[in-house]
């Protein structure tokens, strides 16, 4: 995993529009961060378990994305945290993005007002 700059690490996929908005917002606010592309570099079970424990697997698993929607009904049925983590390990594009690691907590998804509030509280 990358080393942290100012304690910030942004996890996601390079080509995602929401990721681009989050990266632009961080850069416009003069915040340095490390970027971890989990589509090319992968993601480990420990990160997914921590994110699911913090937010709930229902938040971390992107069920609105095309990768999830393409799954057959059997794969989508009876989901729980363990099964959701297996799906996300197999296909990281099913992880909601971005995930911004602030060190002591993470933010999932990009909402400028939440980024501003959390990062102001951090400093």
From TrEMBL:
Gene3D superfamilies: Glutaredoxin (3.40.30.10). Pfam families: ArsC (PF03960). It comes from the Bacteria. InterPro entries: Arsenate_reductase-like, Thioredoxin-like_sf, Tscrpt_reg_Spx/MgsR. Belongs to the ArsC family. This is ArsC family reductase. It comes from Stutzerimonas stutzeri. The lineage of its organism: Bacteria, Pseudomonadati, Pseudomonadota, Gammaproteobacteria, Pseudomonadales.
């Amino acid at each position: 995993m990358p080393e942290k700059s100012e304690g910030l690490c942004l996890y996601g996929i390079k080509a995602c529009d929401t990721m681009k908005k989050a990266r632009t917002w961080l850069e416009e606010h003069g915040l340095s961060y490390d970027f971890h592309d989990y589509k090319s570099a992968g993601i480990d079970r420990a990160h997914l378990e921590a994110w699911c424990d913090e937010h709930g697997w229902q938040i971390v698993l992107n069920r609105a994305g095309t990768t999830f929607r393409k799954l057959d009904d059997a794969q989508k049925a009876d989901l729980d945290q363990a099964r959701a983590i297996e799906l996300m390990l197999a296909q990281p594009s099913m992880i909601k993005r971005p995930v911004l690691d602030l060190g002591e907590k993470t933010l999932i998804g990009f909402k400028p007002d939440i980024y501003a509030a959390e990062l102001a509280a951090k400093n």
